[in-house]
Description:
2 copies of one chain form a homodimer. By secondary structure, chain A is an alpha/beta fold. In chain A, 49% of the residues lie in helices and 15% in strands. Chain A has helices spanning 2-13, 30-40, 44-62, 73-77, 80-96, 111-122, 148-161, 177-180, 190-202, 223-232, 250-253, 270-273, 275-283, 290-309, and strands at 17-21, 68-71, 100-107, 125-127, 130-132, 139-142, 164-170, 214-218, 238-240, 264-268. In chain A, the strands form 2 sheets. The first copy, chain A, has an 8-stranded parallel β-barrel, surrounded by 8 helices. A two-stranded antiparallel ribbon of chain A has the order 4-5. In chain A, helix 13 (275-283) crosses helix 14. At the A-B interface, helix 3, helix 4, helix 5, helix 6 and strand 4 of A face helix 3, helix 4, helix 5, helix 6 and strand 4 of B.
Amino acid sequence: MALDRLIEAIVEKQNPTVAGLDPKLDYIPAYIREASYEKYGKTLEGAADALLTFNKGLIDALYDIVPAVKPQCAYYEMYGWPGVKALHDTIAYAKEKGLFVITDGKRNDIGATMTAYAAAHLGQVPVEGELVSPFGADALTVNGYLGSDGITPLLTVCREQDTGIFVLVKTSNPSSGELQDRLLDDGKTLYAAMGDRCEQWGGQLPGKYGYSGVGAVVGATYPAQLQEMRKAAPHTFFLVPGYGAQGGAADDVAPGFDEKGLGAIVNSSRGIMCAWQKAGQKTGQDGKNYGQAAREEAIRMRDAIVARIGKISL
Amino acid sequence: MALDRLIEAIVEKQNPTVAGLDPKLDYIPAYIREASYEKYGKTLEGAADALLTFNKGLIDALYDIVPAVKPQCAYYEMYGWPGVKALHDTIAYAKEKGLFVITDGKRNDIGATMTAYAAAHLGQVPVEGELVSPFGADALTVNGYLGSDGITPLLTVCREQDTGIFVLVKTSNPSSGELQDRLLDDGKTLYAAMGDRCEQWGGQLPGKYGYSGVGAVVGATYPAQLQEMRKAAPHTFFLVPGYGAQGGAADDVAPGFDEKGLGAIVNSSRGIMCAWQKAGQKTGQDGKNYGQAAREEAIRMRDAIVARIGKISL
């Protein structure tokens, strides 16, 4: 089961964090951008080439210390189909380096259409009898607003392809409560109801270590809710955004973990990707050190969280 | 305002329907697929070329009678980045033919990431000072589970780029009620609460004809809810899926319209795209007539709905 593989990688590397790969041109050192424009012009192709080069440098700097990367689809779609090709190539490169890849797409639809998304991101597609893997991630973030018709098509593909999903439960943004915190007529919040669904859906993808193949997104910016959901959804592994740039700290994410240090993986995107810009204030900011700066920041984040939660064991 | 343009096109063509472009290889006549494989092999590139050729034929057959097309992202992502390129090329071709394009992506995220999706699908992206339009749709379907942080970034782009959005409110699938029909503590359903949000968000994008630039998705398969929401969200234009293949009929969609015949646009995807397969049982099924069959089905659908709602006027 896919999240078992993620858990094993977390334990092996003693690192419950994932590096978000959300590249914007603004985050990419000039020397990389210029080399790409040299080859492809100041076009979407040029931008996409810069994205991929930047990502590969990050992956090279991180793959032996982080268990997973999380590319965010929006930043690739923003550069059109060449950007989407860079997403594909980034996923392929990360998997080559042994990383677990969570595509952050928050996809949602129903029936045959959800099956198409599942095949696109987590499975294979037949082209006249030949099976092709369009994007090939290990897991995908999804939005459960449409109910089981939007999730069960994924479970079939996840079972067949050893892949997993993370369902949005309580997101990290300030206005997440507008709908997610609304109380339902049984006194539960909407996010708690979504958490219950995750436990139910997860029953179809049981794992070896107590966590199913249906994870949940629960933000670092709401530690009380993280604690509540850790208890309410004991078989649901959490993907925790909101650390660093969004304000979450090690103390805030700690309630997402169980007593073995399992149960959650914490994401940082800008904190890691843009570490060179912060560091550059000292070193001249040409960005040639961006991989090293990312690595140092990833280590700082790992150490801060592990200091708080202790040794991670199966 | 973008939905004003859609409304004007609906009135001009006296047709409140949109043709869904959700192409799968199974829906595409063999002679098209074979020509594409000849050029690109039995690869994702070959599949994507077949998708694009098929779509162009549909658009050629439909552009003078339907006001809009709705490509569904999942079916393009399913064929990898070449499929996503076919999405881009399909949108460009449809716009060339004067059609209003609704990209059905059900995208959702927050802040800078939602801005990236908005730029990708509804706006422009700077590449070293040059503005490029990555996909260039007129409207995008979105999921509001994350609250205002997920929607307001879109509103800015919509205002600047004359584009619009449709927020999922009550979807057409059997299990849509699992969460959407849950009663909140004020006695309203979740979908009604989402409808209220649409009215609020729409206040920032007012239109000429009483409807804002923030539309809502409300399924044809729930006519009572469609009627309820037409009353509860009087400034919100509805995109109505579920007609035809999913079981909705003209009587079911009628409650979505106001007394002028405005207020809704009804989608049919498989009914139109696959009309040739149904017709082919008579004609030998080589599919060369697929455009004509789609046109006849689109006319049948238009006539059935207009017979029910009457002349559409501004």
